[in-house]
Amino acid sequence: MSTAGLEGIVATQSSISSIIDGVLTYRGIDIDELADQASFEEVIYLLWNGELPNSSQLAELRQDLAAHAAIPAEIITLMKSLPENAHPMATLRTAVSVLGLLDPEARNMSLEDNQRKALKTQAKISSIVAAIQRVREGKEILMANPDYGYAENFLYMLTGQKPDQIAVEALDKALVLHADHELNASTFAARVTVATLSDLYSGVVSAIGTLGGPLHGGANEAVMHMLEEIGEVDKVEPYIHQALAEKKKIMGFGHRVYKTGDPRAKHLKEMSKKLTALTGQPKLYDMSIKIHDILEAEKALPPNVDFYSASVYHSLGIQRDLFTPIFAVSRTSGWTAHILEQYANNRLIRPRAEYVGPKKRHYIPIDQR
Ligand code: ACO
């Protein structure tokens, strides 16, 4: 019996998000409706509480997120001491670990304690990602503006400028689209970690480490790398054909669960078209479309959430190695919702392995080997 990759195995029950017949819902609401109508803060509230917020609940969440956005001075000092070429995902993983280390409540386990830790982590993670960029540019770290929403604050803390509305709306929609995704690898890692009754920060650190690989969230950075390597629309065909002939995976395509298409990709495709045109880089979209056509026609592989998000983030002026950290900023809402759900009905997650190693044998003393 092969259970490689746990494909098709139902490992837990969850009421947070579902993928049924290729349709993704958060708490029962179709991602298409949320992408078109909800703000990221509404989605955070929905994932954590099971219902959409009313106006005063939303206002309170927005206030709380801004109020907790400041990051401890120790983390900034630490960031400044790290090698300049450290990958932002490694810095982010380390910074969230230190966040847990510095939180005197980290190991308190009541529901209220864990909800507060989820709020603090969500509030601070975008400040940490923005600070990673500011530190490596040698610029001052900026505090969140309480008058701005979450996406707007992130872009403001990153660039020091009040972002334009189109950029804010685009990032907000990208955050909505990436917020949760059933039992994806990083969410599973988070749940495994906290199912030992380890603390919430440890769960998020496990999740960040798991998200970073190119088969998962790291694919968005890899897509941008590929687009830059290809460079011109007329080079797409030879590049992709050669990669396929060499049995290389084309980043941003394929999915373990979706076989006929990722419902998030069409939203990002539309955004990519609009933003690359607005920023005078339609070539990026044209190359993407050509890659998409070849993969669909020749491998029947549709794009996943990571493919068009690369050109979207690039059009927002975001550096390539921050793409996956931004995914982490969004997915923190889902990770923490799953961590709270795991604690609420916990059982240690401890599967078995089918042993295929040597038959039982004896230890040989070192002088006889
Ligand atoms: N490019 C080329 N061929 C592919 C790709 C791809 N991107 N994805 C799958 N295939 C092929 C495989 O080579 C394999 O072919 P074979 O049966 O002839 O050997 C077949 O399709 C099945 O692929 P698997 O890798 O077995 O599928 P699995 O479910 O294990 O992997 C995964 C899913 C990891 C997403 C895979 O499609 C992939 O590596 N994609 C590229 C990386 C990527 O975009 N990751 C982001 C996923 S979305 C997310 O995590 C946010």
TrEMBL record:
Transmembrane domains' residue ranges: none
Catalysed reactions, as listed in the record: oxaloacetate + acetyl-CoA + H2O = citrate + CoA + H(+)
SUPFAM superfamilies linked: Citrate synthase (SSF48256)
GO terms for biological process, alphabetical: carbohydrate metabolic process; tricarboxylic acid cycle
Xref: InterPro entries: 2-MeCitrate/Citrate_synth_II (IPR011278), Citrate_synth-like_lrg_a-sub (IPR016142), Citrate_synth-like_sm_a-sub (IPR016143), Citrate_synthase (IPR002020), Citrate_synthase_AS (IPR019810), Citrate_synthase_bac-typ (IPR024176), Citrate_synthase_sf (IPR036969)
Keyword Lyase: no
Pathway given in the UniProt record: Carbohydrate metabolism; tricarboxylic acid cycle; isocitrate from oxaloacetate: step 1/2
PROSITE patterns the record matches: CITRATE_SYNTHASE
NCBIfam families in the record: cit_synth_II, PRK14034.1
Protein name (record): Citrate synthase
